[in-house]
Structures are given as C-alpha cells and as structure tokens.
Amino acid sequence: MAKKKWKKHSILPGFGLSLGFTTLYVSLLVLLPLAMIFVNTASMSWADFWATVTEPRVVASYKLSFGAAFAAACINVVFGVLIAWVLVRYSFPGKRVIDGLVDLPFALPTAVAGIALTTLYAETGWVGQFLSFKVAFTPIGITIALTFIGLPFVVRMVQPVLQNFDQETKEASAILGASRLQTFVKVIVPEILPAALTGFALAFARALGEYGSVVFIAGNMPMKTEITPLLIMTKLEQYDYEGATAIAAVMLVISFVLLLFINGLQWWTNRKFAHS
Amino acid sequence: MAGHIPLSYVGKSSGKKSAEEPLAIRVLLISVALSFLFLFLLLPLLAIFIKAFEQGMGLYIASITDPDALSAIKLTLLVVVLTVPLNALFGIAAAWAITKFDFKGKSILITIIDLPFAISPVIAGLVFVLLFSSHGLFGDFLFEHDIKILFAVPGIVLATLFVTFPFVARELIPLMQSQGSAEEEASLTLGANGWKTFWLVTLPNIKWGLLYGVILCNARAVGEFGAVSVVSGHIRGLTNTMPLHIEILYNEYQFSAAFAVASLMSILAIVTLILKNIVEWKAGEHG
Amino acid sequence: MSIQIKDVSKAFGSFQALQDINLDIETGELVALLGPSGSGKTSLLRIIAGLEASDNGVILFGDEEMTHIRTTERKVGFVFQHYALFKHMTVADNVAYGLKVRSKKERPSKKEIKEKVKELLSLVKLDAFADRYPSQLSGGQRQRVALARALAVEPKVLLLDEPFGALDAKVRKELRRWLRRLHDDFHITSIFVTHDQEEALDVADRIVVMNEGKIEQIGSPEEVYEHPNSPFVYDFLGNVNVFHGRLEDGTWRNGADSLHQQALAYVRPHDVAIERQKSAEDAVQAEIVHIHVVGRTVHVELKQGDTDRFLEAELTKDRYRELDLKPGETVFVRPNQLKVFIPEDYSI
After folding, report:
1. How far is C69 from chain A (nearest CA, A)?
2. What integer pLDDT is reported at residue C276 of this predicted model?
3. Range in B89-93, C134-138, C322-326 with the lowest mean pLDDT
4. Is residue B257 part of a domain?
C-alpha cells in the first residue's frame, strides 16, 4: 500500500473518492470564482484601485453598511439574549411555536422580508404611521431589515449554553450571598459571553453582505442610503466591472477577517462547552 | 461560520426549569421578548398575507397563475431540483472525507466550506459574471461555442449552488464527528465492504442530520435573491425566479400581486420551519 | 487458528506505540494483553484485526500472511470497547448483519440466518430481546449482543478490546466467567485487551504484560504473578512493597549504603512476615499505623523505622490473633520471599 505522508492510515474506504470530489467541487465552485475577484483587481493599477475604493460615494456606503450592521448586531445581542433567556427558563403558552418562529428569517426569502418590512414601516404603513420620524428609506429602516435577518443567530447560539448551564453553579452563587444582579453579572454573563459574541459576529457578517431585505426599505439614495452590496450591483448594471470588482475585493477581505475571527470565537465557545 | 445551529446541539434540553425570578420580572421579560418577536417576526408575516388578499381572492389567483408567475415558479423549482441534490452529495462527500480521515489541510478545507456563508450574495453573483460575461475569463470561449451561462438558467443554478453549498456539509460534519467511526469499523470487521457499510450503517445514522441540512439548503435555494439577481438578467418568463418576480411586481407598484407570490413563498417558509422542528424532535428522540 | 506476530512496530507521529513486538498465540488459546493505558495493547489488537496498519512487521494467521489483507477479509470477530452496536438496528438485525452483507453466493438463506441468530441469542441468553434496540439494553446486555454479532460470522479469531471496561464491578465479574466458559466450549483463538490485572489473572490462559510499546513478560497467570521478571510487572500485578537494600557478595541485604551496589527487593504483602522479636539480621523495625480486616485476611499498614517508608503486610486472621497486633505498636518485619532488581536498569 502506497503511503502518503500527509494522510494518516485509515481502514475506512473512500478517502480518495470523497476528498477528490470535495476538492474538485470546492475548487470549481468557490475557489476559482473567488480568485477571479483578485485576478481582476490585480489587473488594475494601485492608484486606480485606491481611487475607486475611496471614492466619496463608496466611503459613504462603507460607513452606512458598517454602521447599520453594527447597530443591528447590537440590537440582536440584547434582544437575542433576552429571547433565549425567556425561551429556556420560563414557560408560557405558545412557547414551542414561538421557539420555532425564531428561525423565520432563515426560512423566509430575503426579498419577501424586504417588501413586508417596507410596507410596514413606510410613512403610511401599519407601524410607520405611528412613528414621528421616517423609518423606511432612511438608515433606521436599513437597521430594522438587518435586525430581522440577524435575529436567529444570537438566540440560537445562546440558547444551548443557557440550557447546559449548570443550575447548581447559579444556586451556589446565590447561597454565597450574591444578589440576583451579582449572580447575573458574575456567573451568567461570563458563561454566555463567548456564545453571544459569536452570535454578534455571525449577525454582523451576515448583515454586512445582506442585499435582498435591504434594497426595498433602503431607498438607495447615493451618499445617504446606499449600502455597499447595492453599490456593487449598481456598478455592475452600469457595466463598470472594474469598479464593482474593486469594491468586492475590499468586502471580501473584510469577510475573510470576520470569518477567521468567528472561527476563533467558536473554538473558544466549544472549549467552554467541553468544560461543562 | 454556520448559518444555523447544527442539529447536534439542538433538542438537548436539560429539563431543568426553575424560575426563581419574581413574577413581575418574569412577566416583564416575557412581555418585552414577545413584543419584540411580534414586531419583528409575526407582524411582517401577517402583513404579507393580509396584503396578498387585500384586493380580493380573484386578483390573488390571477397573480399566481399569471404566465410570468408560473414560469418563475417553474424556474425556481428547476433550480432547487438541480442544486439541492448536488449540494447534498457534496455535503456527504465532504463530511465523510473530513470526519473519517486525518489529513493535512483539513482545517483549511473546513474554512473554505464556510466561505459562502460569510460572503455577500452580490459578490457570489459577481464572481460568475467575471467568469462568464463577454469580458470574463471564459467569455470568448462561450461566445465561440454559443453557450449561454450568464443571464440564463446555468448561471442561476451556479450562483444558487455557490450560496447554498455549505448547508448540508455544515450539518453533517459535527454530527459525524460526534458519532465517530466505531460502527463503520464494526461493519468492516463483519465482512461488509465500503459501499455496504456506507448504505447500511453510515447513512441510517446521519439521515436526520442530512434531512435537516437539505431542508435548510432548500429554503435558501428557493429564496436566494442577491446572487441570482446579479446573474439572471431579469428576462421575464425566462430567467426570473420567484424572488426576482416579486421584485419586478413590487417595483411596478403591483403590490397585491407581489404579495400574492410572496405569500406562496411564506407558506413554504412556514412549512420549512415545521419540518425543521419535526426533524429536530425526531433526531432528539433517536439520539 | 494460531496467530504469529513478528517484529511489529507502529508509531503515531513521534509517539512509538509499538516496538518490535513478537508474539505467538496457539490455536484455541485465550490470551490477555495486559498493560496500563498507552502501553500499546489496543494498537496491537487493532493491528491484528487490520483496523490499523503496522509500520513494519508481519502478522500470520496459521500459515497465511495477513499483513496486507483487509479487515473485511480477515474473518476476525472484533468486540469493541463501547460495543459499537448499530443503533438503528434491532438486536436480531445486529447479530444477522455479518451474514446479510455477504455476497449472494456465500450468503445463507433467510431461514438459515434466522436460525443462526436465534441460536446465538440463546447462547448469550438474550432470546427475549431480539426485537429491542441497543438503546433499550443495559451495558452487559449490549456487550453480549456485540459478542453474538462477532460470533455470527464464525470467526477464526476473536478479538476483544476492553470487553468489560464500561461495566460495573458485579456484571463485569459475571461476564468474564461467562466468557471463560464460552471459550472453553468453542475454543476460538481469542485475545482480549485489559488494564485490569484481576481480570487477566482470572480469565486468561496466558498473559502478555505490555508497557510503553513493548512486551514486558509473557506467561501463565501464575508465572507472571509469582515470578515477575521486571519491577514493572511486579508493580502492575498486585500490591508490592519495595525494600531499599544492597548487594553483598551476591546476596541482598536490607538497607542501602555507599559501599555496595544498591538493590531493591520487591515483596508481595503476603510475603511480609511480622514478628514480635527480631529473629533474623535483616528484619526491620516498623511501627503499625493501621489495621484493616477484610474478610479472612488482615491488612497491616506499617511505617519502616529506619527509612520512614510505608509498607503493607497481609496476614491470615489466625496469625493476626496469635500476634495480637495493635496500632502504634513496634514490631519487626522480614521479607519471606523477595525478588531483587538493580536500580540502574529502571526507575520506579
């Protein structure tokens, strides 16, 4: 039997077939296409590239995308932890249905969510008419759409941690004389922090790239309510492939960094899991 | 980066329930959480159905039986039928290679599989434009051989494949990791060959996880908007999927028609959620 | 079917799991591979089964070389530590599996399979559980299903990896006696891995003591217990007292000094004699720390006067009464039977 150094021996069959297929599939479908972004960007001069990605309209879109994604992820952490807490620790009628409904943003097509939210928050909409400020077609509307699509991440990350959370640890803390608030801050917060942070990062990463649910509610005014993915789309529609690719390259690098960060966080979470 | 929580985490409630917080706090927390969920999840869902039927049943039926709507439905189904099985097959192969063997570069492979979750759908579409447009890498070749990928069905399928391909693999990898290889080894010592071992031992053990991944993959494939929007070209009756069709109707101020088609997709989303919960429950039951 | 293992070595990265293992197992023997965790015993068993490949060396079943034969064709029965039962199959389906997956030519008829399963389930006393799933069985029952499943394919060699490791003490004892009787009836060449010396002594025809990837000693249970050939084996098989002494003209004397070769004497607790009077020169003064009476034997814990080392003696109840020992008293202890090792060769 020929021994390959990079692979430990295993008696299970199918290594060549499964890894071969996997590698081919990943290469053709993901690596080759993604490489195109960098290949095409590399054909631009540095000055051109820099001018394209720092154009005021583009910079405004970064600010909006980052700001709205960050705000939405923050809202999701607060309410996500609260919802997970309520779902794990309390019982109330309809709990199972509500628990199932939390995943709706994963299941509902983004375009459908987009038109529904726009209709609700338009000035004459069910919710919009009661608000003294404009929501749809402003950054607030964008934040609402991004909150919607990121909601399940934090809830679903924190829920299992709370479920596994040792009741005894908490009771011990209470017996030691800690007040409810102290127990929460000193015992529970550190326990759910890695999961909540992972959920935050996942929601943030998703929000940063989100397109479908935002385009309807954003209004898409350059410099004001134009998110970066939409700007890429606009440039594509104007056949400005270079411009679109340059901006995509910037976003892609940010995505890579976020992905590494999230992998690190998940490793941390799993380690916490393993301890309990 | 998972777009969802692996099945292996779900359904392991400790069964401990103690609510030592005072009733007032409990009621307050529950009301705040429920209000938030009502505002952000339930209300949009209700709005879709109410808006869909606002102009009466007649218009609703007309909207969803419109030839363009029907062709969008057909195209969406075609995309699903092509992408979901391929990605399921990929997921099984990737999970088998990753969980049953030790090799160098494994963690890089896992990270690459996660990539599509982290990338904006618009970029997912853009990369195929860069490959297949007339200025793209294969542009001349495709033109010479008169093959249309971009602004045609193959482009839509490719973009959807890209966006949905981690779902099954992400589901199966942690599941198969936790199950180990002892049962497969037992099967081999009993004289079963590799394929028999896979069919008779591995597949039955991962069936719920596989189904779970397929359900999620399917939901995303049906609803993908950004990536498909870039590569489709929006040719009515030809390259419009359901979400794209909704966009066009909405932008043309045919709100009721847009919501009628949206309601169909919402029903599918609800069915997805129900199936997902059934699978979680089944998987929990069978350990 | 006899098994020969020649010069088998195996490394996992920089960790040498097995080093030049040579072992002959005769047809019909029941052999225990005994050693602490990390001693390589499980790796050796898995290499014999073909579940792991050795880096070099040869495995023979009878005259047939097996080194490059795949697990699937080795016709071994393997019982896994955690049973590895097929969760989604009933007990009967688990047992029938090895017969059902055979190619059409070799596969017995459905009726034959059914009968074989019935026969095996009655052998392992699980007739009533045929339609249950593994999750509905106790640990001991699962282990018996695993054994029946392995026996169904009529293996020439039966390999068991820590077969009783996950069971509680009482079930473990029952099952190992039962395994011994089963072996006496069927005479399948069997190898089982264990870290429990009592289990090895109780069940096996021969014991292979392993440590750090090497075989320390091979012998009958009596041989390895009574005549261990290394401090490791002495220590691993049962309790042992170590006396620090010296070699004087080839004989061992208690108490080390700088003039002579240092030597350690290994003495089993039941070979430590306790006396009221110093009867021999090498008797050592010791203080009784603790006395436990366990059934018919009495364990006496002592502190050696000269070195502050603790040692343990085991007496019969009669001898204990005769001496009328009390904690805190000072007595003399003397090894009746000892084995001497020179410390340079090893560390303890």
Report:
1. 11
2. 85
3. C322-326
4. yes
Max CA-CA distance within chain C? 80
The residues pairing with C300 across neighbouring beta strands, listed in sequence order, are: C291, C313
B26 touches chain C (CB under 8 A): no
* Domain presence at residue A135: yes
Closest Cα in chain B to A255: B118
Residue numbers in B near C149 (CB within 8 A): 186, 190
Nearest in space to C51 (alpha carbons), one of A10, B100, B184: A10
Q: Most C CBs within 10 Å: which of B189, B198, B201, B202, as the mutation test of the C interface?
A: B189
- CB A82 to CB B246 under 8 A? no
- For residues A209 and B230, give the distance between their C-alpha atoms in angstroms, rounded to a whole number: 14
> Using one digit for the tens of pLDDT, what is the confidence trace for C56-66?
999 999 999 99
Let me know if residue B13 belongs to a domain: no
Tally of domains in chain A: 1
Between CA B47 and CA B50 the distance in angstroms is 5
With tokens 């919501």, the residue in question is B259
Q: Note whether A233 and B145 are within 8 A (CB).
A: no
**CB nearest to A9's CB, from C53, C68, C71:** C53
CA angle in degrees (0–180, nearest 5) for C59-C60-C63: 160
Domains of chain C: 3-236 (3.40.50.300), 241-345 (2.40.50.100)
B25 and B141 belong to one structural domain: no
Based on the fold, state whether residues B36 and B104 are members of the same structural domain: no
What band does B31 get if pLDDT is binned at 50, 70 and 90? very high
* Helical residues (DSSP H) of chain A, grouped into ranges: 15-26, 32-42, 46-53, 56-89, 95-101, 104-107, 110-121, 139-164, 167-175, 180-183, 189-209, 212-218, 228-237, 241-275
What is the longest distance spanned by two Cα atoms in chain B? 75
Q: Kindly report the CATH number assigned to the domain that includes residue B168.
A: 1.10.3720.10
Give the max Cα distance, chain A: 76
Can you say how many angstroms the Cα of residue C157 is from the centroid of all Cα atoms in its chain? 18
Cβ separation of A10 and B277 shorter than 8 Å?
Answer: no
DSSP-assigned beta bridge partners for residue C335: C272
Of residues B186, B192, B200, nearest to C84 (C-beta): B186
Q: Which residues pair with C60 in a beta bridge?
A: C4, C65
Measured CA to CA, the distance from residue B91 to residue B86 in angstroms comes to 9
pLDDT in tens, chain A (276 residues): 334 456 666 778 889 999 999 999 999 999 999 999 999 999 889 999 999 999 999 999 999 999 999 999 999 999 999 999 999 988 889 899 999 999 999 999 999 999 999 999 998 888 888 888 898 899 999 999 999 999 999 999 999 888 877 666 666 666 666 677 777 777 788 888 988 999 999 999 999 999 999 999 998 888 999 999 999 999 998 889 999 999 999 999 998 998 888 888 878 777 765 554
CB contact under 8 A, A1 and C70: no
